[in-house]
């Protein structure tokens, strides 16, 4: 044991305390040690919150470099600060027995503000901020950075602050926990909070063997699950993710959470597994969160610093949103609202020989007013594959469909049986279809099945491409927005309306949302 183990650590009071604990344990086992304090980037850059610095390893990077340069043999970290993927050549050598896992609220005067509508809480943690706002949505959360002592001093100096949130282990370990403090047992801690971790070079068997004697297996099991959960969600310091695992009666209990930055959205997961049967626990819980909107939530957090360049005039499904590639930052909302009308029974009292349905909205209106049995339609003609599919699922066989109304009209002129047709349409509809039919002596009975109301909003100036799905969405958009954009359209009828307002109009190969998304992706390669 003649080799001196050089212990690298940050030079804050808490980091030095943790390093000295490791030093004491190693020396108790007969090893010689030397403390080497190193100032990290995270301690030097205090003008921005951690999550804005964009580096998950902000407190570990300097020590990693020192180790890879062989300036230190091991590094001591708060495990919650360590990225879930370590640099090449560096391994986790030990996890010490865990301390207090809770977050702690340090307050001034009293706790009465917790019942007040207005209060000011300080924290530099995105996770703590989101969970606090989820519980107290009317409170104000301000940023707080620096070492523990500096943060406590800032709390004292700011008269309008009611309290600040700290890791219980941090203020407890260096003996500065104020009397005016309560543990927040409702707040799910950061993955691996309260645990001290030692890293070493993978090639250094002597040091790894020494550190192995410090390892606390129960803490290692629990923190590994928490960090795997974090890794699966691709979080790090940039997302409000909490996780806690603990062992009781030979069972591992886990709870995790993902929130939006403002705390307005929250996805929780809990799971219990027998010890030894827990190896898929983190993956199961992460997938549970992802499948319940976590993927979309993570994407919105990751893209929050990016300016929106594409806007959709129709809301997406989760599956559709996932089709965009990384160069597209998209937002969506419904630029038209549909109101289904009451359709008088006289229109369907007798069998109708020829019926035209050009949208799924018309199908929904019919089925809202009547049962499928009441809809005695001999020949049904449709516009669009999805309208056709819905009609055949809910009403009956479609005799023929086309991708746009003009093509359908021309088909009917040549091939339709009889000289009358009933057209279930919107109050806002294109003139092509009824005009062509009437010019060719086909009588059109129009039944207003639903109303289309404009409900557009003004988009940001960064938007340079817009996705349109009907002439009405185009009309709604131009009421409040500029026309110097690229119009990506679902079909010819929509494109024809877009050409009245925009210079650059592009049409999807097939009339589906997915095909419009494909056009967008090709443009932004």
Automatic annotation (TrEMBL):
Record domain Porphobilinogen deaminase N-terminal: where: 5-207
Residues covered by the Porphobilinogen deaminase C-terminal domain: 221-277
Pathway recorded for this protein: Porphyrin-containing compound metabolism; protoporphyrin-IX biosynthesis; coproporphyrinogen-III from 5-aminolevulinate: step 2/4
Cellular component terms per the entry's GO annotation: cytoplasm
Boundaries of every Tetrapyrrole biosynthesis uroporphyrinogen III synthase domain copy: 344-517
PROSITE patterns reported for this sequence: PORPHOBILINOGEN_DEAM
Pfam families: HEM4, Porphobil_deam, Porphobil_deamC
SUPFAM superfamilies, alphabetized: HemD-like, Periplasmic binding protein-like II, Porphobilinogen deaminase (hydroxymethylbilane synthase), C-terminal domain
Gene Ontology terms, MF aspect: hydroxymethylbilane synthase activity; uroporphyrinogen-III synthase activity
Function: Tetrapolymerization of the monopyrrole PBG into the hydroxymethylbilane pre-uroporphyrinogen in several discrete steps.
Binding partners and assembly: Monomer.
Family the UniProt entry places it in: Belongs to the HMBS family.
Name this polypeptide is given: Hydroxymethylbilane synthase
Organism encoding this protein: Mariniflexile fucanivorans
């Amino acid at each position: 044991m003649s080799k001196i183990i050089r212990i690298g650590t940050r030079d804050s009071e808490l980091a030095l305390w943790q390093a000295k604990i490791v030093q004491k344990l190693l020396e108790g086992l007969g090893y010689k040690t030397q403390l080497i304090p190193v100032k990290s980037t995270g301690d030097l850059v205090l003008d921005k919150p951690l999550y804005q610095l964009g580096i998950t390893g902000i407190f570990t990077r300097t020590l990693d470099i020192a180790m890879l340069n062989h300036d230190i043999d091991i590094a001591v970290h708060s495990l919650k600060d360590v990225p879930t993927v370590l640099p090449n050549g560096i391994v986790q050598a030990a996890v010490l027995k865990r301390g207090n896992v809770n977050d702690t609220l340090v307050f001034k005067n009293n706790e009465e503000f917790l019942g007040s509508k207005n209060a000011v809480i300080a924290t530099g943690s995105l996770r703590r901020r989101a969970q606090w706002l989820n519980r107290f949505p009317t409170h104000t959360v301000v940023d707080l950075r620096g070492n523990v002592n500096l943060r406590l001093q800032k709390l004292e100096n700011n008269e309008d602050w009611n309290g600040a949130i700290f890791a219980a282990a941090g203020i407890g370990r260096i003996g500065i926990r104020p009397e005016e403090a309560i543990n927040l047992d409702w707040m799910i801690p950061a993955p691996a909070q309260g645990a001290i971790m030692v890293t070493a070079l993978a090639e250094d068997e002597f040091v790894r063997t020494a550190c192995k004697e410090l390892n606390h297996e129960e803490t290692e099991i629990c923190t590994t699950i928490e960090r795997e959960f974090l890794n699966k969600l691709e979080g790090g310091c940039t997302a409000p993710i909490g996780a806690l695992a603990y062992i009781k009666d030979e069972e591992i209990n886990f709870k995790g959470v993902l929130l939006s930055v403002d705390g307005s959205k929250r996805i929780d997961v809990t799971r219990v597994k027998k010890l030894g049967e827990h190896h898929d626990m983190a993956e199961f819980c992460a997938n549970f969160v992802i499948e319940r909107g976590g993927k979309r939530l993570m994407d919105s957090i990751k893209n929050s610093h990016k300016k929106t360049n594409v806007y959709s005039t129709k809301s997406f499904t989760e599956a559709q949103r996932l089709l965009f590639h990384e160069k597209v930052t998209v937002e969506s909302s419904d630029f038209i609202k549909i109101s289904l009308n009451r359709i008088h029974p006289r229109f369907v009292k007798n069998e109708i020989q020829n019926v035209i349905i050009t949208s799924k909205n018309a199908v929904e209106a019919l089925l809202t007013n009547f049962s499928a049995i009441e809809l005695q339609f001999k020949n049904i003609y449709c516009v669009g594959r999805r309208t056709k599919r819905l009609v055949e699922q809910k009403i009956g066989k479609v005799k023929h469909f086309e991708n746009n109304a003009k093509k359908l009209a021309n088909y009917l002129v040549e091939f339709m049986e009889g000289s009358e047709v009933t057209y279930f349409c919107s109050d806002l509809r294109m003139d092509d279809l009824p005009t062509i039919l009437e010019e060719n002596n086909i009588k059109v009975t129009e039944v207003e099945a639903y109303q289309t109301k404009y409900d557009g909003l003004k988009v940001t100036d960064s938007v340079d491409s817009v996705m349109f799905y009907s002439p009405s969405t185009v009309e709604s958009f131009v009421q409040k927005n500029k026309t110097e954009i690229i119009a990506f359209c679902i079909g010819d009828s929509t494109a024809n309306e877009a050409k009245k307002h925009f210079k650059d109009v592009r049409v999807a190969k097939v009339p589906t949302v997915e095909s419009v998304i494909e056009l967008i992706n090709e443009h932004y390669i």
